[in-house]
Amino acid sequence: MITKHFQPCTCACGAPGYVRPVADASIDVSDDDWRFEPVADVKPILPPQREYRVAIHEAAHAVVAHVLGRKIDIITIEGQPHVSYIASSAHRAALAMTAMAADHAERLLLRKHEYRPETADVISTFNSIRQFEFGGCDRCLTALAIVRMHGARTSDAVLLATYRALEAQTINILRTPITASAIRKLAELLMQKGGIDGFEAHQTITAAGVDHGSAAALT
């Protein structure tokens, strides 16, 4: 087995991730050009076994991105699993829904139950965004997109209402049988190959009966 270099770290909100939390308070969270930098510490470890749960997680990100009209660059479940997207003018609602989709998909498809984070946890993440104490995990990226929709000074009540509305739309997408089937098919392909490019991802999802941008009107 080949030794590879991975970049494990913990998000500022406490979730595991692979990017360094933002430390520069001068960064404008309304700026579409923000970027995260890789963590500085790198550990050489053996590649982990491919996990179906991880494949479902990343496939859900990709399928929801696909139906919302976003373009996928690559998907991998090896090393640090992630989906990369081709830069576009995607609505921030689409960014939030794509980010939150994976945790919901894991529970709906694998555990057969619906999941909604506690209100206190959601608001805590919004506060992390306001204080520039956030990283690149799904939870932070969801909250960041919503804060960028309304502004950091927006009340918790408004941010939470937007979160819950987008959450309901995301769950409805995931509950659609054809969407769930596409996620499973893409996950199976990822289990076989470890990673694929965006062309193959979109081709696989479309072949499963899910058209690109078919839910774009939601955003």
What does this structure look like?
- The chain is mainly α and 219 residues long.
- The chain has a single domain, classed as Methane Monooxygenase Hydroxylase, Chain G, domain 1 (Up-down Bundle).
- It is built from seven helices and seven strands, in the order E-E-E-E-H-E-E-H-H-H-H-H-E-H.
- The chain has helices at 52-67, 92-111, 119-130, 138-150, 156-175, 177-193, 198-207; strands spanning 4-6, 9-10, 16-17, 43-45, 72-76, 82-85, 195-197.
- A three-stranded antiparallel beta sheet has the order 6-5-7. Strands 1-4 form a two-stranded antiparallel ribbon. Strands 2-3 form a two-stranded antiparallel sheet.
- Strand 5 (72-76) and strand 6 form a beta hairpin.
- Helix 2 (92-111) runs antiparallel to helix 4 (138-150) and helix 3 packs across helix 4 (138-150).
- It is globular, with a radius of gyration of 17 Å.
- Mean pLDDT is 84; it is low at 1-6 and 18-45.
Low-confidence parts lasting 5 or more residues at pLDDT below 50?
A: 1-6, 18-45
Q: Into which percentage range does the β-strand content fall?
A: 5-15%
| CATH homologous superfamily (4th level) name | Peptidase M41
Q: How many strands, which pairing sense, and closed or not: the largest β-sheet? A: 3 strands, antiparallel
Shape: globular
CATH topology: Methane Monooxygenase Hydroxylase, Chain G, domain 1
